[in-house]
Design goal:
The chain contains 13 helices and 22 strands. It has 467 residues and is of the alpha/beta class. Strands 1, 2, 3, 4, 5, 6 and 17 form a seven-stranded mixed β-sheet that branches. The termini are far apart.
């Protein structure tokens, strides 16, 4: 019988990276993907298309508002939204084809269809033409990811009341867009369409946007996005959203009891995501999920079935593609007899707005809650020559360090290229660096990263050079 050493259900970043690593280590590997293209939510309808459109919209915004100050003069600037979407689709296609190439290169068997367990060593694959195929395996990794959540009174009709999937494939730019949820997805898509001209409103139940991030970053981001024209209603809960086919009526109530109503062309429901576990037929192998559908795992990411592992969004925690990748590699290397590790404390979070937001480690609120004595240093991006040269003045870099040892505990930044600059902080923290260590390292001048050194100087001896 054709038995695989490892089968992986789901071809998102966690799944396909695990498959490649398994093949590198000599495992006979197969991957099962429900849809016709590889790459999962991230590459097809999530991370990649959203960042592609965010980049395109930023180019448009710069042409409208910023090029003139650089002496670049354009007349009659117009926007071809269909062309923008066409480019996004092409980027997605090329990337997904790249994953297909990597599967072939590494001799990984690919099965398209919905995988469901029959036993602890057999899985049945139902293809879209309703034919069935059965394969056997020694070990399995569940990497089926997640899908958008909603509420009973917020039924996503995929027409006017939409999820992030539909928001990234609209045929028109909304004149009015209401977003329910002020987390990463809502903020990024809200930024995208605001730049393209939509009247954008964000309704958030919490008293701040991106509430999991450091409070100072949350406040600064809200200030910048408000300046861009996005309207925010915080501490507000949506009670209903009804579509008449052409527009949506949204009713909401503030925590103080005030009733609000909104009329919008589209409503984006961005209230989180839930795990894709329903079609796996887990009951057949005695594997129980939590009340929210997550698969419980131990510190080896092993389920209650000893030969079946789970990674990424299906096990809970921060739903980030790079975490799923690390977990996939972790499981495979563990199966090969190695001793891998994952440092969840140093997993970065990034918001691809303009300016970008990037954080790693503890927030100030977490340090206070845990009664850890700390010191803080902050440096504004506008104080750098490099930021003035390019016009990216918004934001700051903040470093939190242990008050006694000076070890860096958290770094929070908002500013141009933060998604790249955060890596300096991660590497420093991985090696238990102190704020003084960062302050004593020479940084190129002029550069954005000088702000990291200045923040470290502010943390160490309260002696930044340029403020």
């Amino acid at each position: 019988m054709n038995i695989y050493d490892l089968i992986i259900i789901g071809s998102g970043p966690g799944g396909y990276v695990a498959a490649i690593r398994a093949a590198q280590l000599g495992f006979k590997t197969a991957i099962i993907e429900k849809y016709s293209t590889l790459g999962g939510t991230c590459l097809n309808v999530g991370c990649l298309p959203s960042k592609t459109l965010l980049d395109s919209s930023e180019y448009y915004q710069n042409a409208l508002k910023n090029f003139l100050s650089h002496g670049i003069i354009y007349k009659d600037i117009s926007l071809d939204f269909s062309k923008m979407m066409e480019r996004k689709n092409q980027v997605v296609f090329q990337t997904c084809e790249g994953i297909k190439y990597l599967m072939n290169k590494n001799k990984i068997s690919v099965y398209h269809g919905t995988g469901g367990f029959k036993t602890k060593n057999k899985i049945e694959i139902k293809s879209q033409d309703r034919t069935y195929k059965e394969i056997s395996f020694r070990n399995a990794i569940i990497a089926t990811g997640s899908k958008p959540s909603s509420f009973p009174y917020l039924r996503i009709d995929k027409n006017r009341i939409i999820s992030s999937t539909e928001a990234l494939s609209l045929k028109e730019i909304p004149n009015r867009l209401v977003i329910i949820g002020g987390g990463v997805i809502g903020i990024e898509i809200g930024s995208l369409y605001r730049r393209l001209g939509s009247e954008t409103t964000v309704i958030e139940f919490s008293d701040r946007i991106v509430p999991f991030m450091d409070l100072s970053v949350s406040r600064e981001l809200k200030k910048i996005l408000t300046k861009s024209g996005i309207k925010f209603y915080l501490s507000t809960s949506v009670t209903s959203a009804e579509s008449n086919g052409k527009e949506v009526i949204v009713l909401a109530k503030t925590k103080s009891g005030e009733s609000l109503s909104f009329v919008s062309d589209y409503v984006l429901v961005a209230v989180g995501r839930k795990p894709n576990t329903k079609e796996l037929q887990l009951a057949k192998i005695g594997l129980k999920t939590t009340s929210k559908g997550f698969i419980p795992v131990n510190n080896r990411l092993q389920s209650t079935c000893e030969n079946i592992y789970a990674i990424g969004d299906v096990i809970g925690g921060a739903m980030l593609a790079h975490i799923a990748e690390e977990e996939g590699i972790f499981v495979v290397e563990h199966l090969s007899g190695q001793n891998p590790h994952i440092n969840y404390e140093l997993m970065p979070s990034v918001i691809y707005t303009s300016p970008e937001v990037a954080t790693v480690g503890k927030t100030e609120e977490q340090l206070k809650t845990n009664k850890i004595l700390y010191k803080s240093g902050q440096f504004p991006m506008r104080a750098l020559g490099r930021t003035r040269a390019c016009g990216n003045l918004d934001g700051f870099i903040k470093i939190l360090a242990d008050k006694n040892t000076d070890q860096v505990l958290g770094v929070h930044m908002i500013g141009a290229r933060a998604s790249d600059m955060i890596m300096e902080a991660i590497i420093a923290m991985e090696f238990s660096a102190s704020a003084e260590d960062i302050a004593r390292i020479s940084h190129p001048h002029p550069s954005f990263t000088e702000a990291i050194r200045e923040a470290a100087l502010a943390t160490t001896e309260n002696r930044p050079i340029h403020i």
